[in-house]
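Q: Secreted protein, please. Structure only.
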Amino acid sequence: MITSAVRGLAVAALTSAFALLPASAHAEEKDADNDIERVELVGVSGSDTTPVRDVRTSDGWTNHLDLYTEVTDGSGRKSLRHAGDGTSECSAIAVQGPEVTAACTRVLRLAKGTLTLSDVIRYRSGERVTAKTGITAGTGHYRAAYGEGRITLEGRQVALVLDVDE
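A: Structure for Secreted protein:
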C-alpha cells in the first residue's frame, strides 16, 4: 500500500514536470493520467462572429472559419499554421434590447478528425464574449471525443481552448 507521503511526493513531482513543459507542448497533447488532449485553435471568420442588427428570436446565422494553431520556431518566434476549417451555426433563443442569447453548434474539421461543439453564448454588440463550450462528438482520431472548453469571440476572431477526453 502506498503511504500518503509517497503519494504526495509523486503528485508534487508530476505537477512540477507538467509546469516545466514548453508552451508549444501544450498545443495538442495527451494527459497520461486522464487521456485528455488539449487542443488550442485560433479561427478567423470571413464575417463578424456576432449576429447582425435587428435579430429576432429564432433567427439564425452561419459563420465559416479558417482554423490555425500557434507554433514557435527554434528562435522563439511565434506564427500561425493552418490547422483546418470550421462552421458555426447559431440561432437566437432570446433577444433583450442589444443583447442576444444564441444556441450554437460548431463543427471543426482538423487533420486528425472532426470535433463537434455545442454552446450557448450571450452576445452584446461590439463586445468580446467568452463562454463554455461542450464537445459533443467527433470523427477520426476524435471518434470517441467528449469534454469541454472555452470559446472567445471578438470581431472576426475566434479562440478555442478545448480539453478533449477520449
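A: Brief note, in case it's useful. Residues 56 and 95 are 6 Å apart (CA to CA).
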